[in-house]
Amino acid sequence: MDKLSHYTIRTSDRRVFRRCLRKWSFQSSLRGNWKYRGTEQNINFWFGSAIHFAMEDYHGYNVFGDPRIAFWAYYQAFPEDELPAGAEDYYPLGISMLSYYLTWYKRHNAASDFETALVNLKTGELTDPHHKDPSAQYYPAVEQTFMIPLNVWVAVDENDNIVKTYWNASDLPELFMDDTFILDGKGCKLVPINYHGTIDRVVFDKLGRLWILDYKTAKGADTNKLDTDDQISAYMWAFTKLFGQKPYGFIYLQLTKEAVQEPKRLKNGSLSVDKRQKTTYSLLKQAIIEEYGKVENAPSNIIQFLNYMAEQEAPEGDRFIRWDFVKRSEEELAAHERHIYGELRQMLNPDLYCYPSPTRDCIWDCPVRDWCLALDRNDTSMIEEFMRNFEKRPHDEDGNVDPWRENIPWPDENGMYKDKDGNMKPLPSLEEIIDYDLNMTIELDSDRYASEGTFNFAYEEKE
């Protein structure tokens, strides 16, 4: 106990808490605090981190100059024997998704002109990049980890077990936070509870208003949950605490895990009207114009298919990428704060019995399923075998710890990086990292094809 411990709750922890108490008790820093030893083996989490890193670099310092090269660098950070199963198949998928993102973002961002906010290194204030002080130092507001004090404290013993909870500052023992004191015959320290999370990106719009922007990768876009999404509420609440001002809104950007494809063609070379093909309205329109000069000259069945494709898209995006704009009122944020403390009281209840909540999704959704089964069977040998793959998280960590970041092949000022064998090499070009047999880079003339289906910024009013 030579360092001050951190006990945190996260939005993901709260979701697991509601879903299954036993799974939560295994992972939560308030209970077991176990994590998988080594590289993340859930391919969905691993791939999500890859896309997030590519976006972090591209919209931040942009060291690699292209999100696809940043994605390549993430892949290179892992030894081959530590990559999760399926990583090789997900690599070309990620390249394709990011290729389409470059075109999609250019077209859709033209209406709102979102730019990454800058954080004043000295004051911590957010600054519009158009109004920065030339004499000040800044860093881009990407991957903003926060630890919001909840003004709740726990006394923990030398094994980091919670002995007592203090809900009011007036109840705290008179000592410094790093002092040891005796409680129930145990040497304890006083530790604060924090709300922990990471904001993917903070942006200013063209009217100078602040937004939180969050990236999600999923099988398909889900917009039904946005009004009640707890991460949106929690992050807007945390933003207010962190920066002293309420963000104007939350941008929920979803990238579907599908590779965009050029319009299919039949054996005779004509355009296919197969509705199952993974293409977009803009790509189809581009192909029609290139082949027939203008849409009106195309056969009626192709025009009908183009109209069908237009119906599948919305101003917010298409089946591959879309963003939705969500707002929360002061009353909603105040209510969510009450939700946080209500859940925290249950989490810190010493009499809480953490029973399992099995569903048919456990087989693929729960990393501790075997441990759960072994507990109920009282199979100690199986429990011991399972636990060999897990280790305790250090309680003195200030936020996320990503060991893979230490192995990112960052380029030097000459564009050279050190490979896995210790040799200095120039960063690869796009031609070297893209397998054109498995990928396509989507290149559209944004001005020529932006008249239909593009995003109309509906928040023109000033506050």
Characterization of the model:
The protein is of the alpha+beta class. Helices cover 31% and strands 20% of the residues. The chain is built from 13 helices and 16 strands. The longest helix is centred in the N-terminal third of the chain and has 22 residues, at 87-108. It is globular, with a radius of gyration of 25 Å.
What's a quick, concise take on this entry?
With 463 residues, this protein is α+β, with helices and mostly antiparallel strands. It has 13 helices and 16 strands.
Radius of gyration of CA atoms, rounded to a whole number: 25 Å
- Ends apart, CA distance between termini: 49 Å
Largest sheet: 9 strands, mixed
Going by helix content, strand content and strand pairing, the class is: alpha+beta
Number of strands: 16
Estimate nothing, just give the exact number of structural domains: 2
Poorly predicted runs of 5 or more residues: 437-441, 444-454
Helix content: 25-40%
Give the overall shape: globular
Strand content: 15-25%
Order of helices and strands: EHHEHHHEEEEEEEEEHEHHEHHHHEEEH
Tally of separate helices: 13
Mean pLDDT: 89
Give keywords.
20% strand; 16 strands; alpha+beta; 3-stranded antiparallel β-sheet; 2 domains
